[in-house]
Design goal:
The complex is a heterodimer of chains A (846) and B (291). With 846 residues, chain A is of the alpha/beta class. In chain A, 30% of the residues lie in helices and 26% in strands. Chain A folds into five domains: 31 residues; 257 residues, Rossmann fold, CATH 3.40.50; 176 residues, Jelly Rolls (Sandwich), CATH 2.60.120; 34 residues; 179 residues, P-loop containing nucleotide triphosphate hydrolases (Rossmann fold, 3-Layer(aba) Sandwich). Chain A is built from 21 helices and 34 strands. Chain B has eleven helices and two strands. Chain B has one domain. Chain B has 291 residues and is mainly alpha-helical. The chains are: A alpha/beta (846), B mainly alpha (291). At the A-B interface, helix 2, strand 11, helix 13, helix 15 and helix 18 of A face helix 1, helix 6, helix 7, helix 9 and helix 11 of B. Chain B: This is ABC transporter permease. Chain B: One of its GO terms (cellular component) is plasma membrane. Chain B: One of its GO terms (molecular function) is ABC-type transporter activity.
Chain lengths: 846, 291
């Protein structure tokens, strides 16, 4: 195991670093995860229906926080969802200390009953029964007996439920309805003609509009439920609702019964009864329930504090992460104040955001958050008029709306709004009239629903038109903000445009920046895929009549909510230089301490090896108790068969290996990695280490530069002469022969004429005359009080070159002394005989 | 021949640890390499190649909707700033990753493979110093590479397409002097995010004697991180992936600069870079050099 580890040390370290990083990620996850809670799944049978006496079974999960009793949150899901689709929100709320009751609405998932579309007698009564149940739970804080401290939170279908519940049950203490409707009839049959100030949806006249057929169809299909059904036409829909749906979609028109059913399912009918503080969150990317729905809700609730927030998501898009975080934060503040009575009253300030770009490759939207002191409705705090130019134009309504323009793609999520911004929302030739403004002289930030007056003439007296506002850059594609369009259904029109009366149209609510130099383009078009279009072909004449009135709001940028990361940045920017400084000071301190580390007795001895032992990480003992000395004036030969430990000894001498035990001193200074005394040592160990792309002389010069010592100490010319390098020294090293490289490497070792020269197989690759010359050079070199340590296989060579020899075998010194003395230990007259004798003896010992 | 007098710490007369292998020396050592010269030349030529591609390709329809990429390509000829951004977009995802990995991954492993590392250590260049200088020089070349690419792109783009305002992919414009600052900020941000690759390559460079292994390993792990980033099932865990915020500089392209993601990106990159580099130092100052 140890061996295995040692051999794969590099990989092991890489793996450990990566594991640490992954561990950091997991810790990060754990730290950011909400605190603990327990859950309790139950199928509750509650009494509901018109008389509150019809049992229905509801699938619920109760999330209980660590500390109870606590205020409760009734969490309702969106259309087609179940209690599981709100699990993440539920866990977060439970983490904030609320008892959360998530439940699957009747007609969905594992709950019983049929879909009644938030009818007060059914879905609302179900929720009221759940409040009763909550009031009996010991975990839930009570306002008084039977009255739990509770908020209703939900999106879309669940959002409308929270509004309706607050209207029908005064026990609700706060609500946070998100991306939901005010008037279901007006949402599914929108008609953006302004008939009655201040809202687009006048009362009195029975409502008629253009059927939002793709959304209606999607809505209905979702309510069918999944899997086999005994009723193929209606699925899990209640029979009366199903019948209404089939009638209105077939005719494309509302009738009185449909209006009555939808009115009962619309918060509009109960807004004046709501006393629970309401935080209305509406999506800007929502072709189903637009900003006008939240606006109508905000205006209708008069008996309770109301706050409005828009974000970049909705039924068509998830919205930017920063935006979702903002909504979460606002919800948290709202509940904390009105349920837990913690924190200041949230106030009525209005927050929204504009899409400014894409954030990264995942196409996550980048948004800018804004905050205005108060909500001023879709008409804005003030408005700006932008003139449009254009003449009356004939436009054709195709038979049965085929072909039709595509403004949005419901149910495709974020794709839907991208369709608009990517320019899919193009109009079909002949089916539209466009009216453009001059380029804007200053950026225009529209926050609200712009209005424009149009005139229309129709041979039948009726017309279905779609009015759109494009952002047109001077080059590039026009964009239709979030794919939102304003359908209008007109009756009683003149047949001649000259006699037509102006009609005011409210365009969809948007929060969009139109940059300077861009133009506003109002398009009046005849057919749209998302809507039911007239069956008979007809040609209208249309024209805009006056400027676009663009609502604006005075708002300031919201501060970044990424404060933690900004703090982290500061910490990192301080910590890294500080870490470097500390490391540098530590290294300096250690280096100073080492200076005192001198063995006085050996201060004049070039090399003393004492008890040197080196065990490699894989357990191999390369050198086991080696002792020898090299004195001034000596040329010492280090002899030994392969694997004797010569190279390990020399590597340790260069400070490359750390000895396991024992010591190695050069002029009395302990050799450690990077010990300054190494500068008095020149070495050639295990072949040359030259930069192949440089010439020999450049190699020598650059090597000397790396020592940082003055060039005159190098004795460059002298060394080049000694090594007999000649003219070839100016050619690149990669063209050199083996012998030439060897000679340059010897020259490199000799640079600065070090007091101890260590050469490993120096004659390797040299020819006989060069070997003879080398012999002479080494003798010369040692004469001035320097010393040379040569390791070699060539016994005859060593015999002629060296004054002393050290014979090693299997990691030990088996013989040492003057050459003559060592020869004397053998049987013959040659060093070879003595060597073989010494080496074989070791073999016998062991 | 005379014997030189020694210093108190045992070093030769002219030797001082603080003067060994200076930044300048190492910079020259690297600069003499063909590899360095070719890389810098290639980066200087890249804008010209892109320009030719734009000229030859003409105004062809950009097929499909590739989001930011197509949008940036469409705007590439709008001016010096957009041209530079396009050059950076196409090179930041792979080319610059390889360049950074090469400068930082080859620096120690390359010496080991030549056999010159042991002679540098026997000079002796203190190990910590050797590594510091090598890292500083490698990073200097990384910055130089980015500077060459940015500078040449701005120059080429400016001469051919003019110094018009920066046009953002989702609409909006940034006026000219500000636009150049934005482009430089993007270059700076990319340099910082690539510190992850730089740090990892440097660590691998210390761990292995094969330069290709170090460079390839760093690039490979970078790609793996990119793949993990595409696995949405990982959820919030992806927020701390080293490649999570590599495209956050798109936030600088809107009229109001968006810096939240860039702040995150800088923090993540610097933390990873520092961890990897520290591991390299920790390992190198303790290891047995056997190359």
């Amino acid at each position: 195991m140890r061996t295995w580890l040692a051999k794969r040390r590099g990989w092991v370290i890489t793996a450990i670093v990566l594991l640490l990083v992954a561990g950091g990620g997991v810790v990060w996850q754990a730290v950011t995860a909400p605190p603990g809670h327990t859950t309790e799944d139950a199928r509750l049978t509650v009494l509901s229906g018109p008389g509150r006496d019809e049992p229905v079974e509801l699938d619920t999960t109760l999330y209980v926080p660590a500390s109870t009793p606590a205020p409760a949150v009734l969490l309702a899901h969106g259309f087609g969802g179940t209690k599981d689709s709100v699990r993440e929100s539920a866990e977060k709320l439970a983490g904030q200390g609320y008892v959360v009751l998530a439940y699957t609405a009747r007609g969905f998932g594992n709950s019983g009953g049929e879909v009644h579309l938030n009818q007060p007698d059914y879905e609302v009564n179900d929720a009221r029964a759940l409040l009763d149940w909550l009031s009996r739970r010991s975990e839930v804080e009570l306002d008084r007996a039977g009255d739990p401290r509770v908020a209703a939170v939900g999106g879309s279908y669940g959002g409308a439920l929270s509004l309706l519940l607050a209207g029908y049950d005064q026990r609700v203490d706060a609500i946070v309805p998100q991306i939901t409707w005010n008037d279901l009839a007006a949402s599914l049959f929108p008609n953006n003609v302004v008939t009655d100030d201040p809202g687009p949806f006048g009362v009195g006249e029975p409502h008629q509009g253009v059927l939002k057929k793709s959304w209606a169809g999607l809505f209905f299909a979702t309510g069918m439920g999944r899997g086999p059904t005994p009723n193929p036409a209606c699925g899990r829909w209640a029979a009366d609702i199903c019948a209404v749906y089939q009638r209105i979609v077939a005719s494309g028109e509302l009738d009185d019964e449909a209006r009555a059913v939808m009115a009962k399912a619309s918060p509009k009918s109960v807004l004046d009864r709501i006393s629970a503080p309401t935080l209305l969150v509406q999506g800007e990317a929502d072709t189903l329930f637009g900003l006008d729905q939240a606006d109508a809700n905000a205006r209708g609730i008069t008996g309770a504090p109301v706050r409005v927030a828009w974000y970049s998501g909705g039924h068509d898009a998830q919205g930017a992460e920063a935006d979702r975080n903002r909504v979460e934060l606002l919800t948290g503040q709202w509940l904390a104040h009105y349920l837990k009575k913690e924190g200041d009253a949230p106030g009525g300030s209005f927050t929204y955001s504009t899409v400014t770009g894409i954030r990264n490759q995942q196409l996550d939207m980048s948004t800018l958050g804004y905050k205005a002191d108060s909500y001023s409705g879709l008409s804005g705090a003030s408005s700006q008029k932008v003139d449009l130019a254009g003449r009356p134009q004939a436009i054709a309504s195709p038979p049965n709306g085929t072909p039709a323009a595509i403004s949005s793609l419901p149910s495709l999520g974020s794709l839907a709004s991208l369709a608009g911004s990517a320019g899919v929302g193009l109009d079909l030739p002949g089916q539209f009239a466009a009216y453009e403004s001059e380029p804007l002289s200053a950026p225009l930030e529209i926050t609200g629903a712009p209005t424009v007056r149009i005139k229309a003439a129709s041979p039948t007296g009726e017309a279905t038109l779609f009015v759109k506002l494009y952002d047109v850059p001077d080059n590039g594609n026009p964009t239709l903000p979030n794919g939102l369009i304003a359908p209008v259904k007109l009756t009683g029109l003149a047949t001649d445009i000259a006699q037509a009366q102006p009609i005011e149209v409210r365009l969809p609510g948007i929060a969009q920046r139109f940059d300077a130099g861009h133009r506003l383009r109002v398009v009046i078009a005849t057919a749209d895929q998302a809507y039911a279009n007239p069956v008979e072909p007809v040609t209208y004449t249309v024209v805009v009549d006056g400027p676009v009135t663009a609502p604006t709001v005075t708002a300031s940028l919201l501060p970044s909510e990424d404060a933690i990361w900004q703090i982290a940045l500061v910490v990192v920017l301080v910590a890294i230089p500080a870490g470097i400084l500390i490391a540098w000071l530590t290294v300096r301190y250690r280096a100073r301490r080492r200076v005192r580390n001198l063995v006085e007795a050996d201060a004049e001895t070039p090399l003393v090896v004492a008890g040197l032992r080196k065990t490699y990480k894989d357990g191999f003992v390369a050198v086991d108790g080696v002792d020898f000395r090299v004195e001034r004036g000596q040329v010492v030969g280090l002899l030994g068969p392969n694997g004797a430990g010569k190279t390990t000894t020399l590597r340790t001498l260069m400070g490359l290996l750390q000895p396991t035990s024992g010591s190695l001193t050069v002029f009395g200074h302990q050799v450690t990695p990077g010990a300054p005394v190494l500068s008095r040592l020149g070495a050639l160990v295990e072949g040359p280490g030259l930069l192949p792309h440089l010439s020999g002389v450049d190699n020598l010069r650059l090597f000397w530069r790396a020592t940082g010592r003055p060039i005159e100490e190098a004795h460059l010319d002298e060394v080049i002469k000694i090594a007999d390098l000649g003219e070839r020294i100016h050619r690149k090293v990669r063209t050199y022969s083996h012998g030439m490289k060897q000679r340059v490497a010897i020259a490199q070792a000799m640079l600065g004429l070090p007091e101890l020269l260590v050469l490993d197989e120096p004659t390797d690759g040299l020819d006989p005359p060069q070997i003879a010359e080398m012999r002479r050079v080494l003798h010369e070199y040692a004469r001035d009080g320097r010393a040379v340590l040569v390791s070699s296989h060539l016994l005859a060579e060593v015999e002629q070159t060296c004054t002393h020899v050290v014979v090693m075998s299997r990691g030990r010194v088996v013989g040492a002394g003057e050459v003559a003395d060592v020869i004397g230990t053998g049987t013959g007259a040659r060093l070879e005989d003595a060597f073989l004798n010494l080496v074989e003896n070791v073999g016998k010992d062991s | 021949m005379t014997v030189t007098t020694a210093r108190a710490d045992g070093g030769a007369a002219g030797y001082s640890p603080g003067r060994t292998l200076t930044f300048g020396t190492e910079f020259r050592r690297q600069l003499t390499r063909r590899r360095t010269q070719w890389t810098l030349a290639l980066l200087a030529l890249l804008p010209v190649v892109l320009l030719l591609a734009f000229k030859i390709g003409g105004d062809g329809e950009s097929g499909g909707n590739d989001g930011s990429f197509a949008a940036m390509a469409d705007l590439g000829t709008a001016g010096a700033a957009n041209f530079t951004l396009f050059a950076m977009l196409v090179s930041s995802t792979f080319l610059m990753v390889v360049v950074f990995a090469m400068f930082c991954g080859d620096t120690v492993a390359g010496e080991a493979s030549w056999g010159s590392l042991r002679y540098l250590l026997a000079v002796p260049v203190p190990r910590g110093r050797l590594l510091s200088v090598k890292l500083a020089v490698a990073l200097a070349y990384c910055v130089l590479a980015m500077t060459v690419l940015t500078g040449m792109s701005l120059l080429v783009g400016g001469i051919v397409y003019g110094w018009g305002p920066l046009r953002a992919p989702l609409g909006g414009e940034v006026a000219s002097p500000e636009a150049i600052w934005r482009v430089l900020a993007v270059a700076g941000y990319l340099t910082v995010t690539l510190m992850v690759v730089a740090g990892l390559a440097f660590l691998l460079s210390v761990l292995t004697d094969a330069p290709l292994g170090a460079v390839g390993g760093a690039v490979l792990l970078y790609i793996v991180s990119n793949i993990l980033d595409a696995v949405t099932a990982l959820g919030d865990l992806r927020d701390v992936l080293p490649t999570r915020y590599t495209t956050a500089w798109l936030g600088l392209l809107s009229p109001e600069a968006q810096t939240d993601d860039m702040v995150r990106g800088i923090v993540v990159a610097l933390v990873y870079g520092a961890v990897f580099a520290s591991a390299a130092f920790w390992r190198f100052t303790r290891k047995d050099v056997t190359s």
